[in-house]
Amino acid sequence: MKVILLTLIFLATLNAEYTKPVKLPNITFEMVIDKDFGVMQRNCQWCHSFGYVINQGNQSREFWRDVVVKMRDVYKAPISQKDEKLATDYLYRYFGDGGKK
User: Fold this and answer.
1) Whether the Cβ atoms of residue 88 and residue 44 lie closer than 8 Å to each other
2) ∠ CA(95), CA(50), CA(88), 5° rounding?
3) What is the SS3 assignment for 70?
4) What CA–CA distance (Å, rounded) separates 77 from 63?
5) Is there a contact between 64 and 52 (Cβ–Cβ < 8 Å)?
6) Helix (H/G/I), strand (E/B), else coil: 35
7) Residues 68, 49: Cα–Cα separation, whole Å
8) Distance CA 12, CA 24 (A)
9) What is the phi/psi pair of residue 39, to 5°?
10) Contacts of 38 (CB under 8 A, 6+ apart)
11) Domains of the chain
């Protein structure tokens, strides 16, 4: 009986309509466009916005390399060895910690 009641409640929500206009925010994350920016677009922006990068704060080169490798090895991003180095260089150049330990 509980299953039937829950099913009916669920099915009733499928007919619900929201008629008011919805305005979604447009958030732009500023990134430096340089010679390696295409690597970032080609490899990173498919899955997430650049806000992901900016929210990490300034980090070490090792941190950024580990992030790029994780995206490739764990999340299966199609990042080549060449692009791994270029992406790491880009991230450290603009979001690096300046060599702080």
Assistant:
1) no
2) 45
3) helix
4) 17
5) no
6) coil
7) 15
8) 27
9) -65, -40
10) none
11) 24-95 (1.10.760.10)
pLDDT score recorded for residue 101: 55
Tokens of 90: 């880009």
Please provide the DSSP assignment of 1-34 as one string. Answer: -HHHHHHHHHHHHHT----S-------------S
**Pair 87, 40: CB distance under 8 Å:** yes
Burial class (CB in 10 A: 0-12, 13-18, 19+), 87: buried
* Mean pLDDT, the chain cut into blocks of 10 residues (101 residues total): 86 77 84 94 90 93 97 94 96 89 55
Task: Quote the pLDDT of residue 22.
Answer: 84
The pair of structure tokens assigned to 14 is 């499928």
Rounded CA-CA distance 50/40 in Å is 9
Q: What is the pLDDT of residue 70?
A: 96
Look up residue 42 and give its two tokens. Answer: 């080609």
